[in-house]
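Structure ticket #2291
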Amino acid sequence: MAVRALKLGAFDFIEKPLSMDRLLTATRNALEIGELRRRNRDLKRAACSSIESEPLIGSSAILAEVRSLIDQAAPSDARILITGDNGTGKELVARSIHAKGKRSKRPFIESTAPPYPTPSSKASSRPREGRFHRRVSAASRRFEAADGGTLFLDEVADLSLPAQAKVLRVLQEMRFERLGGEKTISVDVRVIAATNKDIRSEIAAGRFREDLYFRLAVVPIHMPSLRERRRT
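Resolution: structure written out below.
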């Protein structure tokens, strides 16, 4: 029973006959560990907050330029497109912009592409259509959840062309209808997008809409690779 209780999350167990010394020791240890866990959570929150407010480590000129762009863009509602390789900190920059902006007390919602998948045009079964509709509905809910705050569209260049058309429409009108519903929902969302692809090449290849690019890249921010950051 004692082993089972520990596996289920009990801190300790007390054997009979009851020993007051054993009880006091177990209680003291439980309280101390609980306090250590609380401090650990607080330190993690503080560390995350610090990273969001200053996500870039380094003193190179190229990083100073990125910091300047973050500070200039944060107070506005301008849409931002962050480009750069994987691991360069694109999401941290997006969170920093949100934290420094006037929407900082409102939600920051992340949506990783493709939020609007399309059923196969060659073979479309009912289960596939069901998954498609559920995921489109989930994408709409992200816009709703971000109302008043920031929606971070990660890997936006991975969206299919039909998905890009849907995103473009929402960006143009800031309203949409729920799947299967007739009510039009209006939202007030700041959109920050990111991609690790060469977006100009994607446009040239016909895989990304140029009009969507111009809607998203009001303020373009390129995240330098670690190799580039070593340069002064």
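Closing remark: The CA atoms of residues 78 and 152 lie 13 Å apart.
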